[in-house]
């Protein structure tokens, strides 16, 4: 557990921009937390209403709506968690790998909820292209992070 003395000491060691970033990050985390709580309440209300439908709840559209709402909450939780981790590790608020990972989650949510009966071939190809590009980008970023010395050496030549 952190004590106030340790927090004050760490705060004094930060530059003014790092202090600013810490404050703004915590405010953004609070906003996201409010959105998460609001979303959970809305999903709970939606589930209570849908459960009253009985067997009709098992219709594909209703299940997709509920599943989409739950996936949205999970994406928000991942976003909030990534901010918390960056604050804890003092790595800065913007990390490209996390942004790409969240984008992959959003695209995966979109594909899962896509109505394949009405989707056009162009739409499916576009989603596949975006998913493939984001996956490749994430893989390249992971490879670069595993071999930072090799990446720096290649950049010099």
Summarize this structure briefly.
The protein has helices at residues 4-13, 16-51, 60-89, 96-113, 121-146, 148-156. It has 157 residues and is mostly helical.
Task: List the topology elements.
Layout: H1 4-13, H2 16-51, H3 60-89, H4 96-113, H5 121-146, H6 148-156
General description of the model:
It contains 6 helices and no strands. It is flat and about 60 Å long. The chain is mostly helical and 157 residues long. The chain folds into 2 domains: 81 residues; 62 residues. Helix content is 82%, strand content 0%.
Indicate the low-confidence ranges by residue numbers: none
Q: Give the total of domains.
A: 2
Strand content: under 5%
Largest sheet: none
The rounded Rg comes to: 21 Å
Distance between the termini: 47 Å
Helix content range: over 70%
* Total DSSP E strands: 0
Mean pLDDT: 84
Shape: flat
Question: What structural category arises from helix and sheet content?
Answer: mainly alpha
Task: Provide a count of the helices.
Answer: 6
Helix and strand pattern:
HHHHHH
